[in-house]
Amino acid sequence: MKIQQIKILQLNWGQLSPIWHPLVIEIETDQKIVGYGEAGVAYSAGVSAVAHLIQELGQRIIGKNPLLINQIWQDFYEHTFWAKGGGTLFYSAISAIDIALWDIKGKTANMPIYQLLGGKITSHIHSYASHIEYG
């Protein structure tokens, strides 16, 4: 299996559009398995920079096996100058790709990602809702 293409989707959420800019990616394999990931910079400036970073990093992984997640991450870290320096925008781009690759791996194994990462450790979680002022 090989990564065939990466699509970047900048979502528009109506009344929240002036402040909230969700960025989702779609990685498709040659076997038509699709994985989704989200970049963690949805507020204010920076979304277009992350989209461009995803586009550049995505070119590095076209044709690679999407199940080799650690190798792909290590390639980003060792062979891109800014990965070693860190930073919100760069790691947000890497994170979106990483999440999409785990989604592909979970779909390939017919398992939810939490099982691939070690399994369930509790039967309930506390939730937190922010921006309640938006209804």
TrEMBL record:
Domain of life: Bacteria
GO biological-process terms attached to the record: amino acid catabolic process
Keyword Magnesium among record annotations: yes
Cytoplasm as UniProt keyword: no
Stored InterPro entries: DgoD-like, Enolase-like_C_sf, Enolase-like_N, Mandel_Rmase/mucon_lact_enz_CS, Mandelate_racemase_N_dom
Gene Ontology MF terms in the entry: lyase activity; metal ion binding
Residue span(s) of domain Mandelate racemase/muconate lactonizing enzyme N-terminal: 24-118
Identification of the protein by name: Mandelate racemase/muconate lactonizing enzyme N-terminal domain-containing protein
Lineage: Bacteria, Bacillati, Bacillota, Bacilli, Lactobacillales
